[in-house]
């Protein structure tokens, strides 16, 4: 096996849960569909989300004190399509979906099966994405939102709203 094929042999087997990350700062709101995210500490609890440095959500998140992270059930594909297939440079996504203001002014989506708002503790470069290490400070779930979560394999037909190199 060649060294260049090795990463694909591993990475193509992954099928993470998808989430929508929203940011609010300076009177602006933004949000995008994210597959790079994970709990990164047990005690204290920390979570990291990785945002592409070419999209509007990243530009707003650079100044945000908190981010909201939302898990979507598979029946909320339309929300994933909105936040993954549209760019905030051209579309006000928040006019097209229900949301409320959460801790620190975070935009919390009504469609989320479960969500949390996290205080941004650290930003770290990681290639073409920047990691935002979050301290969860508020969380919740949508009543009756059981069932399977939306996964990367479920979103293959969504064409990214921002440019991809």
Automatic annotation (TrEMBL):
The keyword Transmembrane helix does not apply. It comes from the Bacteria. InterPro entries: Flavin_Rdtase-like_dom (IPR002563), NADH-dep_flavin_reductase (IPR050268), Split_barrel_FMN-bd (IPR012349). It holds the Pfam family Flavin_Reduct. SMART domains: Flavin_Reduct. Residues 18-159 form the Flavin reductase like domain. Keywords: Oxidoreductase. This is Flavin reductase family protein.
